[in-house]
Amino acid sequence: MALAACGATSENKGGPGDPPGGVAAGPNGAAGGAVVGTGGAGQVGPGTSGAAGTVVDHPPTCTAGIPVTTQIPLLLNRQYASVVRDLLGVTAIDSTPVADFLVGDFTGAMTAPAWKVYQDAGAKIAKQVMAGANKAKFISCAPTAADCLKTTVQTFGRKAFRRALTDEEVTSFMSLNSVTPAGTPDQVAEAILNAFLISPSFLLIPELTTEVDATYTATPNAIKLSQQEVATRLSFLLWGSVPDDALNAAADGGQLTTKEQILAQATRMIQVREKTGGFISAFHDEWAQMNNSSAHWFKGKHDTAVYPEYTDASRVANKAELDAFFEEVAYTNGSFKDLLLSNVAFVNKDNAALYGLDASKYTDTLTKVTLDSTTNPRPGFLTRAGFLSSYSGFGTTSPILRGSYMAIWLLSINVPAPDPAFAMQTVTGNFMTQRAYVEELTQKNQPCKGCHEVFNPLGFIMESYDGNGKWQTKDPKGGAIDSKVTTATFNFKTGAKEISSPVQLMQEISKQATAQALYAQAWVSFATGRNPNDQDQCTVNTLQTKLAGDGYSILGLLGDLTQTDSFRLRVRGSL
pLDDT for 149-184, tens place per residue? Predict the structure, then answer.
């Protein structure tokens, strides 16, 4: 049985430990509680406003100026995890990865369940740090020594709050040293660390300066970010974490004023692959819709009688491979086109066979390989087993799922939702290929025909890869996978073209202005925490133009994101 359908899937101050209650801010940091965010965009369908990987039906028009941005976004879970890793060396709480310990990312005011988890996390992390090898990351002197605690509050607070603490704040933290009954010096130090970890200035990313930039006339009320706020934007953009000592020193020394100064720091930071690499992978997971709960990524399993190489372990390897692939493309000076054309892969003993490699030669560790580009072509992420296996049925391929994914998320073709009356139609007959079955199923159902004529061809071109992502020359139904099965005509916005191979298809997609615009918009929304708007559209247009040329690298795009006027200015909006 197959699905025949017209669509597929689609200045809150306080003392230490005061909850950031009532703050109408969310993990995504967009004005008005929008779902697209700094380091984490939300997922909505084409034709709506603001999603990684989508272009709206009526795109904004480039208008000079600074868009509204929220002042106090909440840390995303992955940002919280990166911050406590970089500050304190903590990667797990009670053996649970830090990000998984927290409640799911959310928008709006702080909820009681989330606040309770933050309190629990802060207490457990403080206890773990003070009892372990990472204690010196918080306090490097004896708590009994004169001024040790005060110095610790000031030095650690500068890093944790991304700015120097006020005298009032220092006094507030030090008050924990005079409570009754008195604690031991180590207990007081642990209480201070706990208070830091549940402070609004730690859990939020506030931008509270009020100095208007009188030199910027396009938006007369644009506020100039402080040097420390610029540093924070840089670090959360590129690392999803707090500034390092070098960036803090640049901010405190007034060296983040000009675009050139900002770019110099950005260039340095981008080269720290162990930090920026994960951010790049996280972006591409969003762009590719892997975090979209309505998408098919890594959800379904397969019939091992049809696909004996399928295992739960191979599915885990396939997911890890894609993150490694996205990072590697970027750090080998790759471009947007390389995401769709690179034949680099990462394999281990669990997924090597899917690429025609000898699994016995590999271990549990993912190994970089260059796949054969002739007999088993593998251009880009859409020919990796992670995508192909996710967008298939239990025992079959699914041209419908594969084609609609490309049509919707890469080419922004607005496909209507399925008509329930026709959603589960079936056909009978002796079909030797999945393509023949799908054609019969969708072409005979007139209400569905129009939509499927749009995206089925894209899926048919991918029929050389079986339901588990392995190259196939024979369909499980018995028919040959030949040019009649894998050749189809697709009506691109630039005109109809007959496509006869996955390589040709990926080349055509990579040249489409819409695909480039989707990618540019996704980066701008992901980096800024804003829905598409007229002001950011100017940046989108600039990036799209660069993406259309050759040699514009993903790392170069990252640097360009720091060069906009809106990176160092803001306009006050809804909290």
Answer: 999 999 999 999 999 999 999 999 999 998 888 899
DSSP state of 416: P
Closest to 160 in 3D by CA, of 132, 129, 188, 182: 129
Local structure of residue 480 (DSSP, 8 states): B
The alpha-carbon radius of gyration of the chain (Å, integer) is 26
Contact between residue 98 and residue 133 where contact means Cβ atoms under 8 Å apart: no
Block residue for tokens 């969003």: 286
Please state, in angstroms and rounded to a whole number, the distance separating the CA atoms of residues 71 and 31.
Answer: 8
Task: Spell 546-564 as b/e; 16+ CB within 10 A means b.
Answer: bbbeeebbbbebbbbbbeb
Task: Tell me which residue of 48, 40, 9, 56 sits closest to 517, measured CA to CA.
Answer: 56
pTM to 2 decimal places:
0.88
Reported as type and span, the H/E element at residue 236 is helix 227-238
Can you tell me the distance from the alpha carbon of 442 to that of 448, in angstroms, rounded to the nearest whole number?
Answer: 6
> Would you kindly state where each structural domain of the chain is located, as residue ranges?
77-203
Write the pLDDT tens digit of every residue in 83-124: 999 999 999 999 999 999 999 998 888 999 999 999 999 999
How many helices, marked H, and strands, marked E, lie in the chain? 24, 9
